[in-house]
Amino acid sequence: MAHKQQRFEPYDMNGGTCVAIAGADYCVIAADTRMSTGYSILTRDYSKLCKLADKCIMASGGFQADVKALQKALSAKHLIYQHQHGKQVSCPAMGQLLSNTLYYKRFFPYYAFNVLGGLDNEGKGCVYTYDAVGSYERVGYSAQGSGSTLIMPVLDNQLKSPSPLLLPAVDAVTPLSEAEAIDLVKDVFASATERDIYTVSSHLLCILHIPG
């Protein structure tokens, strides 16, 4: 008779896919609405987007309990910043804060795969992509989550972001118009849905741009 071995398994994988594209004066960020575990669908109407500041939205795939804990931690720190300084955190500053928060938990990390999108201090679109322990990079576009390996080759083919190693540095923004970026996001989700059971074509999409 085999003995049942007890194991500590604190994580689950709830799937989900997130995409963000930065333009010259806009940022498009989207995430699908399905939350799954194994071969079961827990809900088809779950938002993976979180507004952290007026010009900053985070989308997260992975273990949604950890994602919620991460969102609450960032929202609390942003509220404290607002009380102390009387203004919103900028998107680049929030990008650094998210990196620090993830790195702080590196020995028992949040099982969350995040992409942060928004507008920088000059009004340009910016996208920050992360691993689970806080390593991050500013890019022109990114995908995270269970369908990211299907979506990133399409984005690479369509957008061809310049290498971050180029000198002088080149702005990491895409040449597409806002309408073209929205159409591309819809297309890549439709494509990923055909191959990834954790991604659904139904998705929430947010557009950030300068008023007027």
UniProtKB/TrEMBL annotation:
<protein>
    <recommendedName>
        <fullName>Proteasome subunit beta</fullName>
    </recommendedName>
</protein>
<keyword id="KW-0963">Cytoplasm</keyword>
<dbReference type="GO" id="GO:0005634">
    <property type="term" value="C:nucleus"/>
</dbReference>
<comment type="similarity">
    <text>Belongs to the peptidase T1B family.</text>
</comment>
<dbReference type="GO" id="GO:0005737">
    <property type="term" value="C:cytoplasm"/>
</dbReference>
<keyword id="KW-0539">Nucleus</keyword>
<dbReference type="InterPro" id="IPR029055">
    <property type="entry name" value="Ntn_hydrolases_N"/>
</dbReference>
<comment type="subunit">
    <text>Component of the proteasome complex.</text>
</comment>
<dbReference type="GO" id="GO:0005839">
    <property type="term" value="C:proteasome core complex"/>
</dbReference>
<dbReference type="InterPro" id="IPR016050">
    <property type="entry name" value="Proteasome_bsu_CS"/>
</dbReference>
<dbReference type="Pfam" id="PF00227">
    <property type="entry name" value="Proteasome"/>
</dbReference>
<dbReference type="InterPro" id="IPR023333">
    <property type="entry name" value="Proteasome_suB-type"/>
</dbReference>
<comment type="function">
    <text>Component of the proteasome, a multicatalytic proteinase complex which is characterized by its ability to cleave peptides with Arg, Phe, Tyr, Leu, and Glu adjacent to the leaving group at neutral or slightly basic pH. The proteasome has an ATP-dependent proteolytic activity.</text>
</comment>
<dbReference type="InterPro" id="IPR001353">
    <property type="entry name" value="Proteasome_sua/b"/>
</dbReference>
<dbReference type="GO" id="GO:0051603">
    <property type="term" value="P:proteolysis involved in protein catabolic process"/>
</dbReference>
<keyword id="KW-0647">Proteasome</keyword>
